[in-house]
Amino acid sequence: MELQFSRHRRLRSSASMRSLVRENHLRTEDFIYPLFILEGEKKRNEVASMPGVYQISMDYLQKEMDEIVSLGIKSVILFGVPTEKDECGGGAFHDHGIVQEATRFIKERFPEIIVVADTCLCEYTSHGHCGVVQGDRVLNDESLDLLARTAVSQAKAGADIIAPSNMMDGFVAAIRAGLDEAGFEEVPIMSYAVKYSSAFYGPFRDAADSTPQFGDRKTYQMDPANRMEAFREAESDVAEGADFLIVKPGMPYLDIVRDMKNTFNLPVVTYNVSGEYSMVKAAAQNGWIDEKKIVMEMLVGMKRAGADLIITYHAKDAARWLKEE
Ligand code: PBG
Asked: pLDDT (tens digit, 9 = 90+) per residue, 55-73?
């Protein structure tokens, strides 16, 4: 009897053959590396739940950036960790705030590096929410002006990209209008358009000290069970002028990454968040997984799903591993 079947293994016969037909590739240029900048000086604290990730004061920034540049990483996203917080997150839009100062520092010394400024209030508010709070409610429209002011002060400091992550309705419209009015019509917005209310942000909140002091973020961040809602969120952000769309978290939401890639003609970014990083690190430290292989498989999986860019705490390691190849 003559069997009829396909010989898929022909294209897997050797490393060279596999390389020839490989469909997706990781590039160090695809990575955006998050930095946590502490107020004060001579501080470099490892985040307990994120081994290998440090909060650093400005005096460590030169060394950090030298390393980043030597690895070939071209973009960073900045988060500020202030010593003092207030009700309305004043530190976020202060012209000499942490992110603003760190942006100036980097752009003066490393002009070719893309500085993405995370635009949110939660690291700067005493209650830890991403907007203005009244009683137990997070107010939407009252928060928009503060976000626009934050974005403008970040653009003034030289930020190349504004990345609003607070999930208030109309945040892209408000920030776009604010930037344009201040003469920053050339500065793009990388919107956290599709941001789920996720337990995977837990370790980040240790790193950024931004845990909400009451309640949770479920009235503004999305329900993990929803897909149609992702289209609604992205559609409105595109209409309001977003230049990039972020899907966040990464790994558990790669179906949504593919949806966004297929639907919108904008660069899609996936945020491989803190909890994803911590799980890999913990398993690797126990000797349960091969860290390098796991990380590279996860990252190329994100590209295969449709991500053009990846915000990831693994960026430095992955850049090193790509160099070795
Ligand atoms: C701020 C913000 C958060 C993250 C990025 N920007 C935390 C949150 O929304 O609670 C999470 C990033 C990560 O977990 O790595 N709004």
From this structure: 999 999 999 999 999 999 9
Hey, CA dihedral for 65, 71, 75, 80, is it positive or negative?
negative
**Residue 224 maps to which CATH number?**
3.20.20.70
Let me know if residue 224 belongs to a domain.
Answer: yes
As a 3-state breakdown, the chain gives helix, strand, coil percent values, each rounded to 5, of 45, 20, 35
Catalytic residues: 195, 248
Residue 194 lies in a domain: yes
Tens-place pLDDT, residues 125-152: 999 999 989 999 999 999 999 999 999 9
Residues contacting residue 320 through CB under 8 Å, at least 6 positions apart: 71
For residues 50 and 206, what is the distance between their CA atoms, to the nearest angstrom? 9
Q: Is residue 279 part of a domain?
A: yes
To the question of pTM greater than 0.90 for the whole model, the response is yes
295 part of a folded domain: yes
- Please report, in angstroms and rounded to a whole number, the separation of the first and last CA atoms in the chain: 46
Alpha-carbon gap, residue 30 to 35, rounded angstroms: 16
Q: What is the DSSP letter of 222?
A: B
CA of 201 relative to ligand 1 center, distance in Å = 6
Q: What atom of ligand 1 comes closest to residue 130's alpha carbon?
A: 16
How many Cβ atoms sit within 10 Å of the Cβ of residue 245?
Answer: 26
**Domain with 320 in it:** 24-324
Long-range contacts of 105-110 (CB under 8 A, 24+ apart): 105/58, 105/61, 105/62, 106/61, 106/65, 106/76, 107/157, 107/158, 109/62, 109/65, 110/65, 110/69
Task: Point out the ligand 1 atom lying closest to the alpha carbon of residue 167.
Answer: 16
- Count structural domains, the chain: 1
